[in-house]
Amino acid sequence: MITTLLKADHKVAIEDGELISYQVAGHEYIHQKGSPGWGSSDTEMFPIIGPTADAGYRVQVPRANALQDQHGILRELEYQLLSKTENGAIYQKEYKSGTVVNNSKYPEKSTARLLIWPFNFNFKKEFELVEDGLQITFTVSGERDMPYMLGYHPAFKLHSEQPYLETSEKRISLDEVLAVGSRALEIPDCARIALMDENSITIETEGFGHLMLWTEVPNMICIEPITFYPYSLPQSKLHEGFDYLAANEKTFKVLLSPEKTIS
To answer: Is residue 56, in this structure, part of any structural domain at all?
Structure first.
């Protein structure tokens, strides 16, 4: 089901929790499904980020067994729409400890048929059109001391031949991102980045701490806030990148601000 949000000349379309369109005065910022590059427009990486195949899909956690394919089990769960207003919508995914989930990558792209996680969790995703743009808020709640990583994986449509990205410290060309390939380019200790294209957009984050950039085509780029860059460790030691839920919940925010640049 597609949900539409409206505020002034800003228009957002969400399909079952996935951001499929963000237009301002008719200009589309989000990569469209069916275009070259990626079959989705946004997703979340939780409770792990990165590939696990080399570790036999097993991730070390303090209790029981954790079988996780690339980027975690959350993407295999379905969002439920909790509430909707003209300017906002809230979605939720819930998981009960030990529930076996079918892996959609099996058998074409994975040898892991089933996935499992030994902790309860609740994952909320809230969209809201605010004064500065589109704010997306993630709230993770669950068992205290549950290990987790979180990454948000939105894809942006590119309109010009020479777009680039800019932080407060450096400029990054599209060619630099393409050269890294599937591993994604790490931007450590960064919470704000601008995509300079035909129309610019700035991504500001809270709670994540880092970014990584990925694309393998010139017509789109994924700008991904992450709590941990997974390629800094071998897959067998991926657990060393976990954070732990210190209280009942943790909140993360991403603000997409069209026509706002790094100053």
So the answer is: yes
